[in-house]
Write a structure and sequence with these properties.
6 strands, Thiol Ester Dehydrase, Chain A
Length: 142
């Protein structure tokens, strides 16, 4: 299983790291992360951009999936996601707790809840499906 240190190191230099996402807990079938609400993540209307919320949830689900890949798999890709936005934030920190609800040989399904840490309000409910990737068989031609 992936450690917190490995998850945070892997996020650096990529979109989750760029947004300031920090993984705070990881266990079998569960993962948590947080992200500070900052001006760069705001929409022009002064509220947290919905894309930042989705990125936090999708990053949790994706890193959770990476930590639970079946034997022989070498990666995954998100093939479907849905988010219900229930609120927003202007400051503070948003947190995400994601948990696996299905693990199969070809897919995983993850649910996540994004909250505003300071108020405890739920900002979004998220579900995604990841397709598990396996190395392609190579053929040799004479």
């Amino acid at each position: 299983m992936m450690t917190l240190e490995q998850a945070n190191a892997r996020a650096q230099g990529f979109f989750p790291g760029y947004l300031g996402i920090v993984f705070t807990a990881i266990g079998h079938g569960e993962i948590e992360a947080e992200c500070a609400v900052q001006k760069d993540l705001m929409a022009p209307n002064g509220f947290l951009h919905a894309g930042a919320v989705v990125t936090l949830a999708d990053s949790c689900a994706g890193f959770g999936c990476m930590s639970m890949l079946p034997d022989g798999a070498d990666g995954f890709t998100t093939v479907e996601l849905k988010t219900n936005h229930l609120g927003t934030a202007r400051d503070g920190t948003i947190t995400c707790h994601a948990r696996v609800v299905h693990t199969g040989r070809t897919t995983q399904v993850w649910d996540a809840e994004v909250k505003h840490r300071e108020s405890g309000r739920t900002l979004a409910l998220f579900r995604c499906t990841q397709m598990i990737l396996y190395p392609r068989a190579t053929s040799t031609q004479a």
